[in-house]
Amino acid sequence: MPELPEVETTRRGLQPHAENTTLTRLKIRDHRLRWPVDPALPERVAGRRIVSLGRRGKYLLIELEGEQWLMLHLGMSGRVRALPATTPPQRHDHIDFVLDSGDVLRFSDPRRFGSLQGVCGPVLAHPLLRSLGPEPLTEAFSGRYLWSQSRNRRMAVKAFIMDSHVVVGVGNIYAAEALYRAGIHPSRAAGRIAAGRYDRLAGAIKAVLSEAIAAGGTTLRDYRGSNDDPGFFQQDLFVYGRGDQPCRGCGRALRSIRLAQRATVYCPRCQR
Ligand SMILES: [Zn+2]
Question: Active site residue: 44, 112, 262, 269, which one?
């Protein structure tokens, strides 16, 4: 499933193809995504210049002139590629953003959990975006912030940092790795962790996401989004997917549990 690093990698890869071109045509081959694509959308956006390609959480935000926005979510299996417009579409290629440059941004999504929505006016006020927590790679996200948000909260810290109202983009793999690096047990109550430990955790979250984005930048072409693993970054995993294997820090067998319906691996010695 595309997580924040894959979406950001996609954004960076598409940005030079998209910005300062004109969206000559929005071609919808299949409206049946997670929510049906508005049939009036192509007419509303055709002919508009693309001002910027941004991201909020796991949404790609295509800013068009005249304060029109397109919000694209990759869902479970979606991806977008920049291709010559003459490239014949394949079976799961549901949407084409046809550009005046001769390129097309092609969205394919075999499982169709992705979505495309048009927004007029301030996009960050959209119901799907306005209650999201801060971006993890900005200064607004810090140990101090996590500490203040977690007071009196009894939920497990892993579920807490995976809550998009707390912070966006910390998926299962990144939560597990960051908790290991910070030495924090994944089921410890969020409200019972001291400020200094949250400083380490915020730093670890920023580090694992930055490393994944850096790795993804070089392997974008190979990214298929066809399973739960990002396909890169695997050699650097300390705990994710390594249940019963020896901890790389202390050698003890890593333990595997279910936590908030998600598989969770941790080291019983290194994480407290
Ligand atoms: Zn260990």
Answer: 262
